[in-house]
Design brief:
Layout (H helix, E strand, L loop, with lengths): L2 H9 L6 E5 L2 E5 L3 H10 L7 H14 L8 E5 L4 E7 L7 E7 L6 E2 L2 E11 L2 E10 L6 E9 L2 E10 L14 E6 L15 H14 L3 E4 L3 E2 L15 E5 L19 H9 L5 H20 L5 H32 L6 H6 L8 H7 L1 H27 L5 E6 L3 E2 L3 H5 L8 E5 L9 E6 L3 H6 L3 H11 L4 E4 L7 E6 L6 E4 L2 H15 L2 E4 L9 H7 L3 E5 L21 E4 L8 H5 L2 H8 L5 H24 L23 H10 L5 E5 H4 L27 H4 L3 H13 L1
Parallel strand pairs: 3-10, 11-12, 11-25, 12-15, 15-19, 19-22, 22-23, 23-24, 24-25
Antiparallel strand pairs: 1-2, 4-8, 5-6, 5-9, 7-8, 9-10, 13-14, 16-18, 17-18, 17-20, 20-21
Helix pairs in contact: 1-2, 1-3, 4-10, 7-10, 13-14, 17-18, 19-22
Length: 712
């Protein structure tokens, strides 16, 4: 690897080395020259030979000196600093700075002190870089700033962030608890075979009666309209909008009984797994009927609400709806598309899009209508949460990336890394690594856009939420990028300081606390950075171990700033874990070798022993269900173990504890088996064993809630 190639890659935030940990210990990796060249060129810089590398370095080194102001400055409210580059002939004493809060019109003059920090000669011109420090106090907010030097004006954006994210208001309670649930998995006597927003409202009612304060949800983002079986909530076509499958059609104004196919719904509900195609198409047909009747009555209050929603959402909603209409057209053509067809619709401003939008106006309006209804029903859930005075309420989930074939990427393709996608390096759970193929922001393009796309995504997912889980929160600092045509990857670094400050600002503006999922390969010091920013972390039982990597941490050793839980959607429920169901499945699918399977079983045997010992030491077994045997080899399931484990976790110092319904009701079904798709395992399709209406009287529910409340 040439030193110049390494230098260029490093300047472009491409990691030249990284480590990961698997069952064999710590591994050290260096990306190949080919990978570095690919990533450099995908960012718009030449790297095919030494001459092009040198040219790219010159271009990169000159970049800051060729503009007076950067496009954006992200700062903390206690130290508002920015830099300015001027020709030596331009006197800094003559410079004035003005600012205006975003959305306001009148610029105000700022009191700014300048100090010279660097000089640089380019040809016959000398440039001077100054550091400007605001003496004028600014509250956390978005601002536009204007620098005036004689007759010249230069503009930039100033993002002023608080030092920490929004503080959890526990409303006088010492420690909180709630459920982590997959909304699609909720069963009820009234839904259409998949959990919906009315089920969510009923879960809020149940939780409030039980004394809880938070409901954690899977991502609710909109998925592919024409391929409902592509059901992963982490592979959306837009993180800005909701999945219409969660609409309770019968609650939509204008619904008629004739809109519901009773026989079909009965068939759907009797299926063991969720049939996304049947459910989605049944709902779409009913919603189309309602929308057609609504259009015939445009003077109604409901239609006026719809029009106002469309107006408020503006271009982002329109682009999503056009994208969905185009995708529907592609599906009808069975993807037999000419080169000319593709080019005519390849971006929102391509030659054919405007005409297509006119010709498919009704279809586009229907997609907008579904977003309006979904938003309206989720807003009603938030109103109920406020009525119940819950400390947190909805705890939403923001995916780390977006589908490469998404409205987000279609709308702004060059914002994303080209020809590659996000994934994860090998670790002890996934020895071969993970190739998610998700669209990942180009860090330089993102900054050039003043981080606005990132801000929009945060706002959309903080809507109606009291807390936001950021999936793979390490993505604020770095993402593992893998080219489409390769399996080798490396990390791309982001400006973690800027990203975390923006998260803190949006958290503050939306009164929404933030939780970061950071299980896996975490860079040294990153966890402390999260705590310093008041970003809570997940405290998962199976991951919270001592330095030996084996023994479980005691409840008092957990961090206070944790959302503690037994597992996650990527981990087997407690009973499935006990019987090593996921290990058996991995072997059946040849994802584990015989040796890996044997070792995994041995580890599980040891882990069962450690768990039982930890539960014994904490004296958390229910009084009427003390452990009667060792059960070490998994030959039986200890009665009361789920209560004991929940008591163990409820005892932790962590401010929030999340129960999983699958554990409460002793499910053995794997909600998701990472690294597999529907051809190998029915991910995202398992239903909770008990209907919502029956939960409050269910013995398992009563016992588990009571033992949690004893310690919360």
């Amino acid at each position: 690897m040439s030193e110049k190639l390494r230098e260029l890659a490093d300047k472009l935030n491409i990691s030249l080395e990284f480590t990961f940990t698997n069952s064999e210990g710590v591994k050290h990796c260096e990306p190949s020259d080919e990978l570095l060249r690919f990533l450099i060129e995908s960012m718009g810089y030449g790297a095919k030979d030494e001459a092009s590398i040198e040219k790219s370095l010159v271009r990169l080194n000159k970049k800051r000196w060729q503009q007076v102001l950067e496009p954006v400055y992200v700062v903390n409210d206690n130290d508002i600093v920015f830099d300015v580059v001027l020709k030596q002939s331009e006197k800094i004493d003559n410079v004035e700075v003005f600012y205006v809060k975003e959305g306001d019109k009148k610029y105000l003059k700022a009191d700014v002190t300048f100090n010279e920090v660097e000089r640089r000669a380019e040809a016959s011109t000398t440039y001077v870089k100054y550091e400007g420090r605001f003496n004028t106090r600014l509250e956390p907010q978005y601002y536009n700033i204007k620098l005036v030097s004689g007759k010249k004006e230069y503009c930039s954006m100033l993002i002023v962030a608080p030092q920490r994210c929004y503080e959890l208001d526990k409303k006088g309670k010492e420690k909180l608890f709630g459920y982590a649930l997959q909304l699609y998995s909720i069963k009820s006597k009234r839904n259409w075979g998949i959990g919906d927003f009315s089920d969510l409202a009923n879960m809020v009612e149940l939780l409030a009666q039980s004394g809880g304060d938070v409901i954690g949800l899977n991502p609710l983002s909109v998925l592919e309209h024409d391929y409902p079986e592509s059901a992963s909530p982490y592979n959306s076509i837009s993180r800005l909008y909701l999945n219409p499958i969660y609409i309770d059609v019968e609650k939509v104004p204008g619904f008629k009984k004739s809109d519901k196919d009773e026989a079909l719904i009965k068939e759907i509900k009797e299926k063991e797994n969720i049939d996304y195609t049947l459910v989605y198409n049944a709902k779409i047909k009913a919603l189309e009927n309602i929308f057609n009747r609504l259009k015939a009555d445009k003077k109604s209050k409901f239609y006026a609400e719809y029009e106002e929603f469309v107006k408020q959402e503006g271009s982002e909603l329109h682009k999503l709806a056009v994208f969905q209409a185009l995708s529907h057209e592609k599906a009808k053509l069975n993807w037999k598309l000419s080169k000319e067809w593709r080019k005519a619709y390849e971006t929102p401003i391509a030659s054919g899009v405007e005409k297509f939008s006119v010709e498919h106006k009704d279809e586009i309006e229907f997609f907008k209508f579904m977003q309006f209804v979904a938003d309206r029903q989720l807003r009603e859930v938030k109103k109920l949460i406020d009525q119940k005075n819950m400390a947190i309420g909805l705890y939403r989930d923001l995916p780390v990336g977006v589908s490469r074939g998404s409205a987000e990427v279609w709308s702004d393709n060059y914002l994303y890394m080209q020809g590659s996608g996000a994934g994860a390096p090998p670790d002890s759970c996934f020895p071969t690594g993970q190739k998610w193929g998700l669209g990942a922001f180009n860090p330089f393009e993102l900054k050039d856009r003043c981080y606005k796309p990132f801000v929009k995504i945060l706002r959309a997912n903080m809507r109606y939420a009291g807390a936001l889980r950021i999936d793979h929160v390490m993505g604020l600092s770095r993402l593992y990028i893998i080219p489409d045509k390769d399996e080798e990857g490396t990390y791309i670094r982001y400006n973690a300081k800027d990203m975390m400050n923006i998260v803190a600002l949006e958290s503050h503006l939306n009164k929404c606390m933030v939780v970061g999922e950071c299980i896996g390969n975490v860079a040294e010091g990153f966890s402390q950075s999260l705590l310093d920013k008041n970003i809570y972390m997940l405290g998962v039982l199976w991951s919270e171990r001592h330095a030996d990597g084996v023994s479980l941490k005691k409840p008092y050793e957990y961090e206070e700033k944790y959302f503690a839980s037994v597992g996650t959607h990527d981990m087997p429920p407690l009973k499935a874990w006990w019987f090593a169901k996921e290990i058996t499945k991995m072997r059946e699918l040849n994802l584990f070798s015989e040796d890996e399977t044997r070792n995994a079983y041995y580890r599980r045997e040891s882990e069962r022993r450690n768990l039982l010992q930890s539960l014994d030491e904490e004296c958390v077994w229910p009084n009427d269900r003390y452990r009667k045997a060792d059960y070490i080899y998994g030959e039986g399931y200890p009665e009361g173990i789920e209560e004991a484990v929940h008591a163990y976790m409820a005892k932790t110092k962590s401010e929030v504890f999340m129960l999983q319904l699958e554990d409460v009701f002793n499910s053995q079904k794997l909600q998701n088996l990472p690294g597999t798709d529907i051809d190998k395992h029915p991910n995202w399709r398992k239903k909770v064993p008990v209907d919502v209406e029956d939960m409050k009287d269910n013995e398992n529910y009563i016992r588990n809630i009571n033992i949690v409340k004893r310690y919360r």
